Input
Amino acid sequence: MSNILSTIKSATDLHAMSVKQLNQVADEIRDTLCNLLRLRAAHFASNLGVVELTLALHSTFDFLEDRLIWDTGHQIYPQKLITGRYDEFPTIRTRGGLMGYPNPEESDYDLFMTGHAGCSVSTAVGLRSGDKLMGRDNYSVAVIGDGAFPSGIVFEAINNASELKSKMLVVLNDNEMSICPRVGGVANYLDRLRTNRIYSGMKTEVVNMLNKVPVLGDSTERLLFQIKEGVKAGLHGGMMFEEFGFKYFGPIDGHDIALTKKYLKMVREVDGPVLLHVITKKGHGFKPAAEDPVYFHTPPAFETTETGETIPKTTGGGKAYTNHARDAIYDQMEHNDKVTVITAAMCQGNKLEPVREKFPDRFFDVGICESHAVAFAAGQAKVGMRPIVDIYSTFLQRSYDQIFQEVCLQGLPVTFLLDRGGLTANDGPTHHGTFDFGYMRLFPNMVVMAPGDANDLGAMLDFSLQHDVACSIRYPKLTASEIERTLVPIELGKSETLKTGTDGVIVCAGTPLKDCLDAADMLATEGISVSVINARFVKPMDVDMVRQCLTNYDFVVTVEEAMLMGGFGSAFLESANELRLSTANVSRIGIPDRFIEHGDRDELIAALKLDAAGIADVCREANGVYSVNVPHGN
Ligand SMILES: Cc1ncc(C[n+]2csc(CCOP(=O)(O)OP(=O)(O)O)c2C)c(N)n1
Output
């Protein structure tokens, strides 16, 4: 059979294809996705689940004129394959290659660079509104998963779309999964809609019959009316959406291209907002992924053994910071029944499954609802519990106002464990957790910590739960280092000196600490003697440490895997200024004022001079400039 996929240059090529040909393209996309898994870790189950939906959408609409937003964006691979990026596809998620999320720089079909869930309906309403004002008669479509659907902002958008009477379509891609199985009341409602499918044949007749029940004025009749409306709501699928002003269609099988196209053509003619409920299966068409979509969300690269078996490629061993954090949480919950843990749909990412199993009453998965997660934690803290919000740094950004008002303004002791602090490598700019030092340290009543290694992490969690104040503790997506030393207990606003030198000093906030020590070793062989300090606290700053650094050494280098603007180095400079000490000899290593691309972590880190070689370079340069060649007594 000839390969059609490789010949598709633009999605408009699909318009002339028969359903049979589209199904062949679907098979070819699936093969291409499976082949990718042999190369590298990538989003998998979600992409396999939307192959037919993507083809149905692009063969019905022209998304160079119409608008399409994929919520979350991780299921964009089929779209990339049919919009002129087939040849480059093997480069996906590598530095300089295609991004694993929609990227407007790659194609006009990718309207927004997205990676955070929940905003697609809002954006689509905005696009429709703007296009209407510009006099364009086009159509706006948002595809959103059932996991993201309960996000508060989706209801804000639905509310607005009804008001604007926007001619637009929300495709609810219901695969019964977030990353883990979806949770909550909306999930239950969608389950009921699915099972209501058996009523679809008789629904109209029953509703017609109910409509014949007279509605009169006395109380018995009012009761009858209420019963009638209740029964109608139960029978008529999607009543909730209809009440919000959307026309509801479905549920339909989203793997049936012909059927999905039929519905898409039909809803395009409806004046006003429409919700099309589409049922798909994550991992569809590749048995192992369909059977275990949680593992196959972003599985590691695969390899085929000599016996022909497909197994995950083994990656370097060692325990990740995420696992250390999970074990520390487990330990705290075991010893203190006031401690709770809250995740916003990231149980799998944060490796919390054992905590969920062991402490079901104190484990809360609130769905992809980060703002709610934080306000919910504040509520628990107010009445005496000790909640831990275990969350990715980048997703916590969704809760900024709740950190301000519900937590800090009230002075409540909520602990934030910020996973994926720093670069997340192949995911790229939507997922790098580089802003948290800056955004967390702004608020009064917030302590900001960064463990230098795995030992610090557990000790910091313990410290946090012993104190009556909100604390943020951030760590990266990395195998943890454990630096050998006599452990100095965590003390509020106190740093830890790991190595004492005479020429300069490296002050590190967080896990680049091991690289700082390695840099110091390299420099020692060249006759440059540097101290290495584990800052531990971004806030409050260790003011004595700042004073000593600025008075005892020729040069100071601050290091952080975070934005320079507003980050640890900036905080250091602010302290120096308050001490009225000169900062001319302070160099800061961190992330400059731009979004960092996706790519191999080591490459990205090296380019930012955040590895041992880069840190040593900056020290060398500073030593050359600022060295006065006089011994300092420390
Ligand atoms: C704001 C936000 N929180 C958490 C995540 C992490 N995350 C990525 S995919 C996903 C599940 C999405 O489920 P769903 O919306 O049903 O989409 P599907 O996986 O079915 O495509 C989650 C929680 C995210 N991308 N954005």
Summary: The chain is about 40% helix and 15% strand. Residues 46, 72, 74-75, 115-118, 145-148, 173, 175, 177-179, 344-345, 368, 370, 395, 398 surround thiamine diphosphate (CB under 6 Å). Residues 19-36 form the longest helix (18 residues).
